[in-house]
Design goal:
Layout lengths: L9 E5 L9 E3 L20 E7 L2 E7 L6 E5 L10 E5 L3 E2 L3 H10 L7 E9 L11 E11 L2 E13 L6 E10 L15 E15 L8
Length: about 210
């Protein structure tokens, strides 16, 4: 059994006195760079999750973006003013068909098909967006399995050298109990409550789609 889905529909705003509005979309080959849209190695997955169980750890990844990210970026002073993430559980892959089925059953994916994050605020910073990673904490509402809770997503944003691409990196944890996810044991093997989520993908300039398209 594995968890989670993150970030597929994104809206970010970052401020500057000099730059205008730039729209961004998720660079899909940074989510699953291996052939056929799969991550053959966990280390290269743009969105990865793992959870412990009685005999070790299970891992999984987001196989593809179904809604694009958008970002409104200005550079100086840097300010996040909006962000929204959404991804369907159907896009999550654990490299094992039976585990995928167990995961979607536990999350009742037929009733609650998406996991979303809606930004509400971020700590102010005077630093510009540059090629040096800039730490930002995004506070907002995380909705999963029909439960909405306020959380903080710690991320680092940086410009990719010589391009208009923005790299996003972050690590955080989610509790299954917080979202009323009941994970059944199987042959005496139990899944842990805490799930690790890892972000490591790019945003590129482009025209975003609406999250409900």
């Amino acid at each position: 059994m594995n968890l989670t889905a993150i970030v597929l529909s994104t809206f970010l705003s970052l401020s500057s006195a000099h730059a205008g509005t730039v729209q961004y979309v998720i660079q899909k080959d940074s989510l699953a760079p291996d052939r056929n849209g799969k991550c053959e190695s966990p280390d290269v997955c743009g969105i990865r999750f793992d959870v412990g169980f009685s005999l070790g750890r299970h891992q999984g990844f987001a196989s593809a973006a179904t809604a694009d990210a958008s970002a409104k970026i200005q550079s100086e002073p840097f300010e996040v003013s909006a962000a929204e993430f959404s991804v369907p559980l159907a896009a999550m892959d654990t490299w094992n068909g039976l585990r995928n089925k167990h995961m979607r059953n536990a999350f009742e994916a037929d009733k609650f098909p998406n996991i979303t994050f809606k930004f509400s605020s971020a700590a102010a910073t005077t630093e510009p967006l540059s090629e040096t990673p800039l730490a930002v904490e995004l506070k907002g509402l995380w909705q999963m399995h029909g439960v909405t809770r306020e959380i903080v997503l710690p991320v680092k944003l940086e410009k990719v050298r010589g391009t208009d691409v923005v790299h996003v990196q972050g690590d955080f944890f989610l509790s299954l109990k917080d979202y009323n996810v009941k994970v059944p044991s199987f042959l005496g093997l139990k899944v842990e409550d805490r799930v690790s989520v890892h972000l490591n993908f790019n945003l590129k300039p482009g025209t975003p789609r609406l999250a409900n398209e």
